[in-house]
Design brief:
It is extended and about 60 Å long. Helices cover 63% and strands 0% of the residues. With 103 residues, the protein is mostly helical. The termini are far apart. The protein contains five helices and no strands. Helix 2 runs parallel beside helix 4. The chain has one domain.
C-alpha cells in the first residue's frame, strides 16, 4: 500500500513539474525591432539587472525579464552568470560556512 501511494505521488509530481517546463523559443536567432540578436554580453547585462527588471515587469506589459530575440545558449549562459553575480552565487555560501567554523 505504501509503495503504491509513493509511486502515485511520484508520478503526480512528475506531471506537475513537466507542465511547468518551458517550450521552444520560436524567436531565437531572429532580429528584434532594432535589427539585433542578443548574445552573451546582453545576457550578462540582463542577468545583472534581473531583480529590477522583474519588479518593473509586474507593472508593465512592455518589460520582460528575458530577451526572446537571443542567440540561444550563450545568451542563457550570460544571463545565468549575471544573475548568479547579483544573488551571490556559490561564493557567498562558502564564505559564510568558513566564518561559522572559526566561531
Amino acid at each position: 500500500m505504501k509503495k503504491t501511494v509513493f509511486v502515485l505521488i511520484l508520478v503526480s509530481m512528475a506531471l506537475i513539474l513537466s507542465a511547468c517546463a518551458a517550450g521552444p523559443n520560436q524567436l531565437r536567432n531572429t532580429l528584434d525591432e532594432d535589427g539585433e540578436v542578443a548574445g552573451f554580453w546582453m545576457g550578462l547585462w540582463h542577468g545583472l539587472i534581473a531583480p529590477i527588471t522583474f519588479v518593473f515587469s509586474l507593472f508593465s506589459k512592455a518589460v520582460y525579464v528575458f530577451e526572446v530575440h537571443n542567440n540561444g545558449g550563450w545568451y542563457t549562459f550570460g544571463f545565468l552568470l549575471g544573475a548568479s553575480m547579483v544573488f551571490g552565487g556559490s561564493g557567498g555560501g562558502a564564505a559564510c560556512r568558513k566564518k561559522r567554523r572559526r566561531d
